[in-house]
Write a structure and sequence with these properties.
Elements lengths: L4 H13 L5 H22 L6 H15 L2 H13 L9 H17 L3 H15 L5 H13 L13 E3 L5 E3 L7 E7 L4 H17 L4 E7 L6 H10 L6 E2 L8 H5 L7 E5 L5 E4 L4 H11 L2
Parallel strand pairs: 3-4, 4-5
Antiparallel strand pairs: 1-2, 3-6, 6-7
C-alpha cells in the first residue's frame, strides 16, 4: 500500500508517545521525525493530492526544530511556484511572502527581504488585489528599519526609576531589549519566560532593558504592574505609546519585539519566544 500523509502523521504521533524526557524535547524529537518523513513523502510523491498540506506540515516541523535554512528554502520554492498576475491567489501570495520575509529579516538578510518584496510586487501586477497587496508589501518594507542580527542598537536614557542607562556601557553582558506594554496580551504571556531567564542568569551577566509603550496616563498602572510582577530591570518610559522615542527610531510596528544583545554589543537573536529565550541566554552567557 502506498504510504500517505495520514499514515505518516499517525506513525509520527505514535513515535512521539514513546519518547521519554521533558515535554519540549519530546516535541522537538517529534517534529524532527515528522520533518524527515515529510521530506521523504514529498520526494517520492511530488504530485500528491495533499502536497500543499504536506508542505505546510513540513514548515511547522522546521519551525519547531529551528531549521530556518530549510524553512526559507521551502518557502522560496513555494513562492516561485505561485504564478503571477490574475493567476496568483492573493491571500496565498501575501501569506507566503510574509512568512519568507520574516525569516529573511530575522536572519539579518535585508537585501534578500527587499528583493523578495520587489518580486512579490511583480507577481501581483495585474491581480485584482494588486493595490492592497502593494500596500501590505510597502508596510513590510518599512519594518526593515528594525535592527537585525549582527547590528547594534543605541539606547541611552534615564529610566523610569531615575537611573542612567547606556547600552554601550553594558558591553560584556548579554542583554535583552524588550519593547512591550501593560495592555499587550502577548507581552504579558511572555513575561514569565523573561522573568525566569532573568532570575536564572542575572547573576551570571544577563540584563533586561524594558521599553514601555504605555501612555502617559497609564504611568501609575505601569509602576504598579512592575512592582507586582517583580520586574527589577530598568524601563524606558516617555508616555508616548507607539510614538515612543526608541520605537520610532527602530521601526517597531508590533509588540512584543525583543532583541538579544551579545557580549560584543551586537544583536544575536530577535523575537525569541518561550523556552527559546532562556536557551539563547544560556548559550551566549557561556561564550
Amino acid at each position: 500500500m502506498k504510504k500517505t500523509l495520514i499514515h505518516i502523521s499517525v506513525g509520527i504521533a505514535l513515535h512521539g508517545l514513546i519518547i521519554a524526557g521533558p515535554a519540549q524535547e519530546i516535541a522537538k524529537k517529534h517534529a524532527a521525525a515528522s520533518a524527515t518523513e515529510l521530506e521523504a513523502y514529498l520526494k517520492t510523491n511530488p504530485k500528491a493530492e495533499d502536497k500543499n498540506d504536506a508542505v505546510e506540515l513540513l514548515l511547522m516541523a522546521y519551525d519547531m526544530t529551528g531549521n530556518t535554512k530549510s524553512s526559507a528554502a521551502l518557502l522560496q520554492e513555494k513562492f516561485n511556484a505561485l504564478g503571477s498576475g490574475a493567476d496568483v491567489e492573493a491571500r496565498n501570495l501575501f501569506m507566503t511572502t510574509r512568512a519568507l520575509f520574516e525569516l529573511l529579516k530575522e536572519e539579518g538578510n535585508k537585501k534578500g527581504a527587499q528583493k523578495l518584496l520587489a518580486d512579490a510586487n511583480k507577481k501581483c501586477a495585474g491581480n485584482e488585489a494588486a493595490a492592497q497587496l502593494a500596500q501590505a508589501f510597502s508596510q513590510m518594507e518599512s519594518s526593515l528599519k528594525a535592527p537585525s542580527k549582527g547590528e547594534t542598537m543605541d539606547l541611552k536614557f534615564t529610566s523610569l526609576e531615575g537611573k542612567s542607562i547606556d547600552l554601550e556601557a553594558m558591553k560584556g553582558k548579554v542583554i535583552l531589549v524588550d519593547f512591550w506594554a501593560t495592555w499587550c496580551g502577548p507581552c504579558i504571556a511572555e513575561l514569565p519566560n523573561v522573568i525566569n531567564a532573568y532570575n536564572n542568569y542575572h547573576s551570571k551577566g544577563f540584563e533586561v532593558i524594558g521599553i514601555s509603550l504605555d501612555k502617559a496616563e497609564d504611568k501609575a498602572k505601569l509602576q504598579s504592574f512592575i512592582k507586582d510582577k517583580k520586574m527589577p530591570w530598568p524601563q524606558h518610559f516617555d508616555g508616548l505609546g507607539w510614538a515612543n522615542k526608541f520605537a520610532k527610531k527602530y521601526g517597531i510596528s508590533g509588540i512584543p519585539a525583543t532583541y538579544l544583545i551579545g557580549t560584543d554589543g551586537k544583536i544575536v537573536a530577535t523575537n525569541l519566544r518561550g523556552a527559546a529565550l532562556e536557551e539563547a541566554v544560556k548559550k551566549h552567557i557561556a561564550k
